[in-house]
Structure formats: C-alpha cells, structure tokens
Write a structure and sequence with these properties.
Elements: H1 2-5, H2 20-41, H3 47-68, H4 84-102, H5 104-127
Helix pairs in contact: 2-3, 2-4, 3-4
C-alpha cells in the first residue's frame, strides 16, 4: 500500500500520505548517520566535509519528494527542512565519536597538555598570596 503511494510521480499530499514528513525525517537520519560514519572512517577534518554532509541531509530528500514523487509540498506544514537539524546533529555525533575512537593518541596528548596546564596554574596560585596587591588598587 505505501509502495503505491510513494511510487514514481504518485503526487502525495497531506491527505494521501500524512506520514511523509516522518518518512523524510528518517531518510535524513539514515543519510546523516551513514555520512557521519564515512567522515569518521576517512579521518575527514575541516569544514568541507561538514558542509557537504549538511547539503546531502537537506537537499537529497528534497530532490526525492520534489522530482521523483512530485509531492504537493504546500499541503504539508513543514516538509522542506523537517528533521535537518536532528540529522545534522546525528552526523556530527557519529563523526566525532568514530574520529575520537580512532585517534586515542591525540586524546592522550590532550589529556597530558591539560594536566600540565592545571599543574602550572596550581603551582602559580601557591606562589601568589591572596590580598597581596597594591592597596586601593581596585
């Protein structure tokens, strides 16, 4: 039944396929999750991968329901960008998680740098005595 309603040029609207926004949201989740895995496994860094992922999440489903389905977008409240922010967040979460797992050496060096900075700050606070300033300074 749903296959016929979502077939080529079926022209769905809010009365014939009311669940289309949910379907589009899940399609965006799948695109975001898979692209996040791709970014993480390819050790991608920088803004180019993120922007390409955002474009894929936002515009591939739009191409599907505009061109393939021929959906009546005006009949839905918010079909064009439904679920984009959530799918983008999922893409970032997956990408950062995989990247972090694959680069434990970078995490260890970051932990050491933070630990050294905390030790330096703690030692410098021991040297400065509270209230030892110029009187009437503030």
């Amino acid at each position: 039944m749903a296959g016929r309603r979502l077939s080529y040029h079926s022209k769905p609207d809010a009365t014939t396929v009311p669940e289309l926004p949910t379907i589009v949201t899940w399609i965006r989740f799948v695109i975001g999750g898979l692209y996040g895995v791709s970014l993480g496994l390819r050790d991608q860094r920088g803004l180019a991968g993120v922007l390409f992922g955002l474009n894929a999440i936002a515009f591939l489903p739009q191409f599907w329901f505009n061109t393939y389905l021929g959906a009546n977008i005006e009949s839905y409240k918010s079909l064009n960008f439904v679920g984009v922010a959530n799918a983008f967040a999922l893409m970032l979460l997956v990408w950062i998680s995989i990247f972090t797992i694959r680069h434990e050496d970078m995490i260890a060096s970051l932990e050491k740098a933070i630990s050294d900075a905390v030790v330096v700050v703690t030692q410098s606070e021991d040297v400065v005595t509270p209230g030892a300033g110029v009187e009437g300074e503030f």
